[in-house]
Amino acid sequence: MKTRVVVTGMGAITPIGNSVESFWQAVKEKTVGIGPITYFDTTDFKCKLAAEVKGFDPKQYMDPKAARRMEAFSQFAVAAAKEALEQSGLAMEKEDPYRVGVSIGSGIGSLQAMERDVKKLNEKGPSRVNPLLVPLMICNMAAGNVAIQFGLKGKCINVVTACATGTHSIGEAFRSIQYGEADVMLAGGTEASITPIGIAGFTALTALNTTDDPMRASIPFDKDRNGFIMGEGSGVVVLESLEHAKARGAKILAEVVGYGATCDAYHITSPAEDGSGAAKAMEFAMKDAGIEPEAIDYVNAHGTSTHHNDLFETKAIKLALGEHAKKVKINSTKSMIGHLLGAAGGVEFITCVKSIEDGYVHPTVGLVEEGEECDLDYTKGEGVSMDINYAISNSLGFGGHNASLIVKKFAE
User: Fold this and answer.
1) Which residues in the chain show pLDDT less than 70?
2) Buried b / exposed e along 160-192 (16+ C-beta atoms within 10 A)
3) What single-letter DSSP state applies at residue 4?
4) How far apart are CA 39 and CA 52, in angstroms?
5) Which tens digits make up the pLDDT trace of 325-372?
6) How far is the C-alpha of 260 from the C-alpha of 266, rounded, in Å?
7) What is the pLDDT of residues 49-74, one digit of tens each?
8) I need a surface site. Which of 16, 162, 226, 394 has the fewest CB within 10 A?
9) What H or E segment, with its residue span, contains residue 241?
10) Which residues are known to be catalytic?
């Protein structure tokens, strides 16, 4: 008998809201959080737009001294984890801390710390490099800082699979609870890579859209899509065994029932052209959940707004769901918040839970006319109110990483 795993808390820092409620309200209002980059001078850059987090003050979530010893990606994770823990009502003084773990990933860690200290190294020499450079920069520090802030002494891991990081992190936390390694896991992703080298690197790869129109910048599945827009933020959830949640009288938001992960083993940046790898991840997740494709009501697509991703993901959904692919509602949250890289899967998982709770599928904002061979229902125009029993959240990462999670409306 598999251990059932439920969601009891959620926290989010996003380009359209610094809490789950403000984020979800903005989603329902079709708010696009993309605008000109303010963090550095973009005069010499082809890409001038990003989806920045706005009005974030780390001192609202942690003491100033702790905040100074964390880069933005870690601060975002701690802030999201704090909201998730508060919603869950988990009282750590009543828990065995070695049974409460963390699985929060970041794709990149801190490019900001790296940039600052490479400049110091080049201009002033090695003796001037910040003694804290390494602990500020390395990408496992989001998980480490969350554990330190809240006294979580169980399994603490950082899955790094580029844009699939958040989804894999939640999936591995789900497995850890199923396997009995933990009663509770804080899981998700975090990222803050809107820096000169981050933007320059992705632009050189021709991955970013270089338009100057925020409303036409991140337009998944549209015929004019031309690259993604970098976002930032964090999405963290509290997962726990059903038994543990019931014993403490927790309010259950949804149930995690399936996780599938594969690799295309095809190309370092392009997904497999027939969508086979991503399809197999969805198939594995459905098998794990013990359901047929017809049970799926909604797919939160990876939907990056690049030509390759949206086309090949469409093929993957058709392969995995067969005829049912034409009946399922699909959308891309990235149409509003851009691509949060390692945090995308965390925030999009939260979107699935909110969609189930509210019975609402948000539109793919900015989708005007579907691209060639993008011929499924991507929720164009307005959102749709409907009953959602099962939702899939997909993430595909550079390196060929594919991950799918299935969230279910909770029933006894």
Assistant:
1) none
2) bbbbbbbbbbbbbbbbbbbeeebbbbbbbbbbb
3) P
4) 9
5) 999 999 999 999 999 999 999 999 999 999 999 999 999 999 999 999
6) 18
7) 999 999 999 999 999 999 999 999 99
8) 226
9) strand 233-241
10) 163
